[in-house]
Amino acid sequence: MMDETRAEAARQALFCEQVLTKSGSNVLLETLREAKSVAAWEHFPQGDVFDPETGAQWYYHSHPPQEGQAEHGHFHCFVRPEGANGPIHHIVAVGVDPYGRLLRLFTVNQWVVGDNWLDAEPTIALLPRFDLHFARPSYLVNRWLSAVVDLYSEEIRMLIRERDRVLAEHQSANDTPARDDRALEVTSELGVDLRQMAAGLGV
């Protein structure tokens, strides 16, 4: 991706954060604003978010609280290239802290999300489809998440390829197929800093 394209994605992500901050909110608060309570692993918003024009879909869930844990939870990002009733493919997960600040990007084993499997290159080809123009639960959250995936698309490509390499080399203790092995959950990950990335792009 050209640096100017990445810079524009960084500007979009930062703009969304700035508007939310000015409004006394943040990405995480906006995501959970309809929730009456927040239970670990429960999907937010209920029913997930799906943009019928692009096939992009996501949900957020949190972790059980653990001492010293920086990450509150993560957004699981998918694409349904054939529409709402078609196959669903996991693209990447986006981890955030309790203030909605970006912490990491990672991929997961198939059993974690139960998606329809695609190898790395067909999965990578879907990345441009993760682009949401949708009001629920918040237009700013949808644009922020779209911008983050766009900004880090090169890194996400590497993570997806690493996912397949890890799975190909994985040997389970009891001959369980790699994509079903509960001992292997996160298949690749990368710590990220949005402001540092933006500064490096001159934003």
UniProtKB/TrEMBL annotation:
A Pfam family this chain is assigned to: DUF6969
Phylogenetic classification of the source organism: Bacteria, Pseudomonadati, Pseudomonadota, Alphaproteobacteria, Hyphomicrobiales
Domain DUF6969: from-to ranges: 8-191
Organism: Aminobacter anthyllidis
Annotated protein name in UniProt: DUF6969 domain-containing protein
